[in-house]
Design the sequence.
């Protein structure tokens, strides 16, 4: 690997009550407050239409915020036009200049900055090396594969040594294998450059795998911001719990430091303060199957799906509700039998209580 | 079995293509034969080869004057229609103007209207305004019907234009004007050039509009040919047609060479 | 890249320069002298007019003549302001001239007072069938091929000979006045008179199958190409090929020939009426009449023209010959034109 490009010192990004309304009154982004640390790999995760891309576009300057401030590296950029913001941008559609060669694409930002020819050539070569595209200088975008095009886009964005790199679903158009490889590369590149990176995605696995922190967005609001493990293990809202991974939700209420399910059964949780309606959230892999009567609840095994490293069982309870249970593949080739009655249990510390809003 | 079917289909395809080509080119061949045949009327088989009709065409001050006028007008129309058409297409596709659909329909209206009505209306308007029939009216009239062609071809390119490309350029530090000249314009260029070639042909071939707007002694070639035909239908007409066709072809080739139509069409 | 841009720039510059050249050029030199705006035919006629007749006229009358040779004249005249018409003198065939007269686009009557040479004209030239002044006429008869073993036609009825099925030629009646006059003549030949349209329609039916053309030039070509072996045509359309060894001839049927008049008239709004009448008078001068008649084989309307023997033998320039001319009541016809067109379209479609 070539020596990393020298980069401008990474900048922090601060959003203060940033709001965007679209014509027709739709609020795309609703008073978002967020601080992204310098050098952080930060993902905005959410379903389509949640406002994550609009948020990114406001940071980039493609959209003007209707309210609030965008501050990057201590500089208020709220009213600064795109071409003065000095940020690298990578799009899902690559957005390469079709009429220019790879080298010309990468050199574009340097040309705009009036960088002298020798330096330009050196930096273009270095950026292309960084994304492993040496030898492709004279090609046109149409002559490259999707993955190669995205590398060119990446090189074009980093060659200007931006303090901030913004990526809008950059791997969304690539097939699964390539996407996973690129995830690793992008992460390595970000570390090598030390750049602050804001990454928009709707793919939770991608966000979990790559990010230092994730902001989960829903309906224009940030539902939860935290490290991947935090978001996964300790979701703070039903939306976050359900959007990320698979989860069992049991409705009920908090009473006297415990949780009482809707059917009146008291379920094991860590001590919980307060009172009121809530749901108990349990990740399938946190549940254990035990013999009938030895668990918290009994049920009948109604379905088994083999996932490779794991097996996903569906246990149907007496009242018809279902619990998903994930067990490590025992490797014996024998799955549990459908129709067998069994018990389910969990550790109280693995139960997350989600208060109704 | 499958191979034979494919080859049958292939043959049918070739025959169909040949038929279309023949259909398109046969009239040209007839014109060429007529232009080279000594008799003053179409005779088949031709009785000989002569250049007298070409000589007559090139020796006629009337034909030459009209050819010159047609080329001058077409040149002006290409410039105007390309500027107006491309600008209008950009404004419609990008401007976020209210009533875009209505405006598009309005700009394309000259395509729907019989050109002869456009010509008559323009003539009457000029008469009412007391302008007479200046040559610029001819340019205006032709431009009016040429603009929609440029707009169409430009809009077509703009419709599958990924605006992120422009955003990428802006994010890399290009101010709006540079984005336009370095990115937008080169990408829409094939559409604009195709439109300008259409504009040239529309103007050079224009008859219905010119019919009303030509003035005595300043008549375009198609009008002169039309009137000539009423009195002397001879090979000079065919010779003039051949010259027009070759000239139009030459212009297309020159534009192609000059601005590299094929090169920009590649992506 | 740079070279390409500069070449493109050059093209733009050239284009713009041309554009300004076109726009900046004065359309017609605004001479001090009065300008007479006229329409006239193209072809050989136009050559003689622009080459000899008009320059001489301009010199003598110290004026400038602006000649419009681009059809269509009537719509252009109609679209221009009545008090500032785009023409001073309209040259048209008799039926178009009638339409102009009915619409008030030309004056109703021209007399010897305005155009003294009218006294030299055969009566048909200013008859009640004419709006304006006839300067020449052609005789519409039958043109035929001499190399197809045909007996030269003697009567209009010879066109109906079954042997000619599919090889006889006529006109698109709605757009051609030769076709229109032939239709009216059919009423006279096969019915009670020129206005007996029912008889005319029936007779027209009998002429099918027939090859139809828009204008006389096409009929000439059809005859020359032998696509038509006999067709309705004016004498000048045949005589113009004299000396070219073409196997075509003109026959004047015994019932008489239809008159195809070249008529001049003045627009009421003309600012140079004196000059306009002067022009018509000039066109009736014997020397002018002779020159044009011999150029295009038109029969002069003036009695005082002495043609060369070759022309004298064929053209209608004696009282006896002129008596064979059948004139059409265009006013009557034009009033029924739509109805006739519809009817004729039905007959000829099948």
Sequence:
């Amino acid at each position: 690997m070539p020596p990393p490009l020298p980069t401008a010192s990474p900048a922090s990004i601060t959003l203060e009550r940033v709001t965007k309304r679209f014509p027709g009154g739709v609020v795309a982004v609703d008073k978002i407050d967020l601080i992204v640390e310098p050098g952080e790999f930060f993902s905005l995760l959410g379903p389509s239409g949640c406002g994550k891309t609009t948020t990114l576009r406001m940071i980039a300057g493609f959209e003007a915020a209707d309210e609030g401030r965008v501050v990057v590296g201590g500089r208020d950029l709220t009213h600064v036009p795109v071409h003065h913001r000095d940020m690298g941008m990578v799009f899902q559609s690559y957005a390469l200049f079709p009429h220019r060669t790879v080298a010309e694409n990468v050199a574009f930002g340097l040309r705009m900055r009036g960088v002298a020819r020798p330096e330009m050539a050196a930096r273009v070569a270095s950026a292309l090396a960084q994304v492993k595209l040496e030898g492709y200088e004279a090609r046109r975008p149409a002559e490259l594969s999707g993955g190669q095009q995205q590398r060119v886009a990446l090189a074009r964005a980093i060659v200007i040594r931006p303090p901030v790199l913004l990526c809008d679903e950059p791997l969304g158009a690539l097939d699964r294998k390539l996407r996973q490889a690129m995830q690793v590369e992008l992460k390595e590149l970000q570390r090598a450059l030390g750049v602050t990176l804001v990454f928009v995605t709707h793919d939770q696995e991608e966000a979990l795998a790559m990010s230092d922190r994730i902001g989960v967005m829903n309906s224009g609001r940030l539902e939860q911001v935290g490290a991947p493990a935090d978001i996964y293990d300790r979701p703070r809202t039903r939306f976050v719990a359900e959007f990320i991974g698979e989860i069992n939700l049991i409705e009920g209420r908090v009473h006297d430091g415990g949780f009482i399910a809707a059917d009146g059964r008291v379920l094991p949780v860590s001590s919980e303060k307060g009172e009121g309606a809530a749901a108990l959230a349990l990740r399938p892999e946190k549940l254990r199957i035990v013999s009938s009567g030895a668990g918290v609840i009994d049920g009948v095994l109604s379905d088994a799906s083999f996932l490779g490293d794991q097996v996903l069982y569906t246990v149907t309870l007496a009242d018809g509700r279902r619990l998903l249970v994930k067990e490590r593949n025992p490797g014996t080739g024998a799955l549990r039998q459908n129709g067998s009655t069994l018990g389910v249990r969990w550790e109280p510390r693995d139960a997350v209580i989600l208060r109704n809003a | 079995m499958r191979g034979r079917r494919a080859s049958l289909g292939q043959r049918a395809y070739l025959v169909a293509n040949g038929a279309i080509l023949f259909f398109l080119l046969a009239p040209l061949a007839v014109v060429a034969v007529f232009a080279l045949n000594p008799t003053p009327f179409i005779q088949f088989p031709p009785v000989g080869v002569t250049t007298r009709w070409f000589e007559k065409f090139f020796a006629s001050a009337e034909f030459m004057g009209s050819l010159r006028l047609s080329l001058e007008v077409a040149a002006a129309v290409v410039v105007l229609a390309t500027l107006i058409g491309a600008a209008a297409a950009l404004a419609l596709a990008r401007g976020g103007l209210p009533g875009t659909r209505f405006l598009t329909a309005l700009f394309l209206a000259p395509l729907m209207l019989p050109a002869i009505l456009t010509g008559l209306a323009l003539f009457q308007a000029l008469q009412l305004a007391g302008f007479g029939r200046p040559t610029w009216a001819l340019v205006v009239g032709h431009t009016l019907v040429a603009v929609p062609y440029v707009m169409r071809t430009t809009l077509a390119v703009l419709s599958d234009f990924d605006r992120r490309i422009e955003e990428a350029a802006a994010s890399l530090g290009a101010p709006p004007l540079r984005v336009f000249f370095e990115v937008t314009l080169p990408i829409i260029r094939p559409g604009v050039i195709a439109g300008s070639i259409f504009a040239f042909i529309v103007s050079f071939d224009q008859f219905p509009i010119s019919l009303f707007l030509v003035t005595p002694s300043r008549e375009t070639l198609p009008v002169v040919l039309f009137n000539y035909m009423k009195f002397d239908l001879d090979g000079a007409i065919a010779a003039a047609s051949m010259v027009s066709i070759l000239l139009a072809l030459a212009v297309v080739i020159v534009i192609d060479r000059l601005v590299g139509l094929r090169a920009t069409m590649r992506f | 890249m740079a070279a390409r841009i500069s070449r493109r720039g050059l093209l733009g510059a050239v284009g713009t320069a041309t554009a300004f050249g076109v726009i900046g050029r004065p359309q017609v030199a605004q001479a001090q002298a009065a300008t007479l705006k006229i329409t006239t035919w193209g072809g050989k006629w136009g050559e003689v007019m622009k080459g000899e007749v008009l320059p001489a006229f301009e010199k003598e009358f110290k004026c400038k003549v602006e000649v419009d040779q681009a059809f269509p004249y009537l719509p252009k005249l109609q679209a221009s302001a009545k008090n500032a018409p785009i023409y001073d003198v309209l040259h048209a065939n008799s039926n178009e001239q009638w339409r102009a007269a009915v619409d008030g686009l030309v004056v109703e009557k021209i007399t010897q007072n305005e155009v003294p040479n009218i006294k030299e004209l055969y009566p048909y030239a200013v008859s009640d069938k004419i709006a304006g002044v006839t300067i020449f006429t052609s005789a519409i008869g039958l043109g035929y091929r001499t190399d197809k073993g045909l007996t030269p036609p003697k009567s209009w009825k010879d066109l109906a000979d079954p042997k000619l099925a599919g090889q006889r030629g006529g006109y698109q009646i709605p757009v051609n006045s030769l076709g229109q006059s032939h239709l009216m003549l059919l009423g006279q030949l096969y019915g009670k008179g020129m206005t007996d349209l029912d008889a005319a329609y029936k007779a027209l039916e009998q002429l099918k199958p027939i090859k139809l053309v828009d204008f006389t030039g096409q009929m000439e070509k059809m005859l020359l190409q032998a696509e038509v072996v006999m067709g309705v045509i004016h004498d000048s359309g045949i005589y113009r090929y004299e000396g070219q060894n073409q196997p075509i001839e003109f026959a004047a049927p015994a019932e008489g020939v239809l008159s195809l008049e070249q008529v001049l008239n003045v627009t009421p709004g003309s600012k140079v009426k004196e000059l306009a009448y002067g022009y018509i008078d000039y066109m009736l001068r014997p020397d002018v009449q002779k020159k044009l008649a011999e150029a295009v084989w038109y029969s002069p309307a003036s009695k005082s023209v002495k043609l060369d023997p070759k022309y004298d033998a064929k053209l209608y320039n004696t009282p006896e010959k002129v008596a064979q001319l059948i004139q059409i009541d265009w006013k009557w016809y034009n009033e029924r034109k739509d109805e006739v067109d519809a009817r004729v379209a039905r007959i000829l479609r099948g």
